[in-house]
Structures are given as structure tokens and as C-alpha cells.
Amino acid sequence: MRKLFAVLALVLALNGGNLGMVQAASPSSLTPSVSTPTVTPSPVPTPEVPRVDITQKSEESLGPLEKLLKSQRLGSVWPKNPVKYAIRGAVDAGVPANTIVLLLLLPLTALIIAFSRNVVGIRGFGIFMPAALAVTFVATGPIVGTVLFLVIVMVSTAIRMILRKLKFKLQYLPRMAFILWAVVLGVLGVLFLAPVIKFQALSNVSIFAVLILVLLAEDFIRVQLGKSIKTAISLTMETLILAVISFFFLTFKPLQTYVLLNPEISLILVGVMDMLLAKYSGLRLMEYYRFRKLIRS
Question: Mean of the per-residue pLDDT values for the chain?
Fold first, then answer.
């Protein structure tokens, strides 16, 4: 009997230990581990930074410029700060700061165009047309401005060739009016296609930019009448190059800040450089390349 009780006690002890182990075991340890696939979050697309149009009176264009003016400390009016005080008064009276910046940058743009003509040898339709085209690129963006520019050039050239082939003898002003009519139809066609091709920047173009580009067709046709289509296309492409170069200067933020905070220095410096450039009478860089064989001999 004693041996039977001892065996029973040993069995109970073993069963109690097993029960204790089962109770101590956590449900997670008894459940088979299932590997959960890690889901990699898709990258969030960075929002496109909208282009700031300095030609428009908006908070994005005016805010930083007005903040710069307010943060600048001025000394006495004479002799170093008369233009600075005039700018403050104009801005306080409601003149947009971006208009003042563009006006201060226009003489520099004209200097760049004159330097490109007299020193480098890049021609174009004078001084004012590349400068106006550069301001148009600031308003529309270089891509949209170039598209409209090329559309106007192609339409005006095609209409002139059609009129010449059909031997329509029209006086100058009626002919230019008819070409302007065709150019407007071409620009309208491009604007109507903008929603179809989902080109939002092209549908937001302003009438100011379109008018400048349309007026460019008159200069292009005038050159075609006086010379040839090849010369007109060459001058047009060089005008486009000058406008793109000037566009980068007009939209260069450090330069905008400098001319706004130091208008006296920028105006005097540009005037002096204009006078020095007027004294240059040597060969242009493109002429050195063009007559390189003659120069070497």
C-alpha cells in the first residue's frame, strides 16, 4: 500500500508540474509564428512648386520684395539714398514692388543685349523687342513663350508665302492686318488645344504676353520683305536666344534683391558700362571665328 501511495504521489506531482508549465506558457508561444509581410509605404509625391510670376501683383511676388524693403535700414537721404527713399514712398503709395524691380532690371537687360550685339555678334530685332520678349517669358515661362513665339513665326511666314504664291497684290498695311488676323487665329488654335493636351501653363497665358508676341510678327515680316526668309529666320532665332538669356537675368533672385536694395549703384553702374560699351569698335567674337582663316594668314 505504501508503494502504491508513493507511485500515486509521484504521478500527481508530475502532472501538477506539467499543468504548471502549461499555465505558465503564454498563448503566443503556443501559437505557431506566422511571418507578417511588411508593407512598404508608397513614396508621397512632392508637390510641384508653383512658378512665381513677378509680372503679376500677387502675394507670392510682392511679399518677399516688400519684406526686403522693410528690413533694410536707411541713412540720410542725401547723397547716397535718394532713390531708396523714392522707392519706399512709391511702394507705400501703392506702386507694386515687382514693377519697380522689373524697371530697374530693364536697363541691365538692354546692356546685356547691346553687349551680345557689339561684342559677341549675336544680332536680333534691335534692343526693345528682345527685352519685351524676355519680359513675356517672365510672365508665361520660357517653354510656353517659345511655343507661342514659334507658332506666330510659322503662321506669319506661311501666310506671306501663300499670298506671294497666289500673287495677291495688297498694300502694306492691309497685308499686315491680314497676317495679324491669321496669327491671332493660330494663337487661338493653340490656346484651344491646351485643355485637350492637358497643358495647364498654356491655358493660363495672359493677354499681355500674347499681344507682345503677336506684335513681333510685324518685325519678322518686315525683315522678310526687305531681305529674305533665311535672314528673317536667323534674326528670329537670335532674338529668341537673347530673350532667353535676358529672361534668366530678370528672374535671378540675388540680382532682383541687389537692384531693389541698391538702386543708385545699379543704375549708375549700368549707365557707365553703357558708355564704355559704346566706345568699343573692335571685331566681334563671332567675326573672329568667321574670319579665322583670314586672320591667321
Answer: 79
Quick check: 240 and 58 in contact, CB under 8 A? no
The span from the CA of 185 to the CA of 259, in Å, is: 40
Give Cβ neighbours of residue 144 (< 8 Å, ≥ 6 apart).
Answer: 201, 202, 205
Residue type, 37: P
- Answer yes or no: is pLDDT of 173 > 50: yes
Q: What is the DSSP letter of 42?
A: P
Task: Give a three-class secondary structure readout of 87-134.
Answer: HHHHHHCCCCHHHHHHHHHHHHHHHHHHHHHHHHCCCCCCCHHHHHHH
Give 52-78 pLDDT, tens digit per residue: 667 777 776 677 888 888 888 888 888
Whole-angstrom distance, CA of residue 255 vs CA of residue 101: 10
- 244 close to 172: Cβ distance less than 8 angstroms: no
Phi, psi of 30 (to 5 degrees): -85, -25
- The more confidently predicted of residues 221 and 89 is 89
CB 112, CB 245: distance < 8 Å: yes
Q: Which helix (H) or strand (E) holds 52?
A: none
118: Cα separation from own chain's centroid: 27
CA distances to 104, 149, 229 from 188, rounded to whole Å, are: 33, 13, 25
Residue 85 burial (CB count, 10 A): 13
User: Which residues are CB-neighbours of 98 under 8 A, at least 6 positions away?
Assistant: 54, 55, 56, 57, 61, 62, 65
Can you spell out the DSSP letters for 188-219? HHHHHHHHHHT-HHHHT--HHHHHHHHHHHHH
Domain ranges, ordered by start, for the chain: 64-296
Residue 34, classed as helix, strand or coil, is: coil
Residue (of 148, 202, 155) closest to 181 by Cα position: 155
